[in-house]
Amino acid sequence: MSGLTINEIMKLLPHRYPMLLVDRILEIAEDGKRIVGLKNVSANEQFFQGHFPGAPVMPGVLIVEAMAQCAAVLFLRQIEDRERKLFLFGGVDKARFRRPVLPGDQLILECEVLQRRATTVRVRGIAKVGDVVVAEAELLSVMVDRPE
């Protein structure tokens, strides 16, 4: 399957500025087990004001969040009543941060399904700038009903 635009992503994810961290989906595997997304890291990002003044670096936790949002797109598009569901973190394992992500970088987010059950999914996420791996982690997400 081809990619998704920001407007299509916003129909799937509940996140909005400043927490929407996926700008485009570049690729979704036909078997539904892999997705590739893109985050354009702008100098105007709100988090750069405090992380760190004079030496801006994208926080690692936000890189992991971007991977999780990318993976959530993969699963939410398959759920009919997705507006009534949320994907929440259940765990983060094997997280490694290899290189700082800086303003102007294009962050490529690759997520591959390791295990899927009725309400949980484990994915391996890799974040790259160009061909360089900048971060990786295994993410466990849990689907819950959205509070009314």
Euclidean distance between termini CA atoms: 33 Å
Count of distinct strands: 6
Q: What is the CATH domain class?
A: Alpha Beta
Superfamily (CATH H level) name: Hotdog Thioesterase
* Uncertain stretches of 5 or more adjacent residues: none
Structural class: alpha+beta
Output the radius of gyration.
Answer: 15 Å
The third-level CATH topology is: Thiol Ester Dehydrase, Chain A
Strand content range? 35-45%
Largest sheet: 6 strands, antiparallel
Instruction: Give the tally of structural domains.
Output: 1
Number of helix segments? 2
Specify the oligomeric state: single chain
In brief:
The chain has 148 residues and is an alpha+beta fold. 16% of the residues lie in helices and 41% in strands.
Would you mind describing this structure in some detail?
The protein has 148 residues and is an alpha+beta fold. The protein contains two helices and six strands. It has one domain: Thiol Ester Dehydrase, Chain A (Roll), CATH 3.10.129.10. Strands 1-2-4-5-6-3 form a six-stranded antiparallel sheet, covered by helices on one side. Strand 4 and strand 5 form a beta hairpin.
Q: Helices, strands, pairings?
A:
Elements: H1 6-12, E1 24-28, E2 34-40, H2 60-76, E3 85-97, E4 106-116, E5 120-129, E6 132-145
Antiparallel strand pairs: 1-2, 2-4, 3-6, 4-5, 5-6
Characteristic terms for this protein:
Thiol Ester Dehydrase, Chain A; 148 residues; 2 helices; alpha+beta
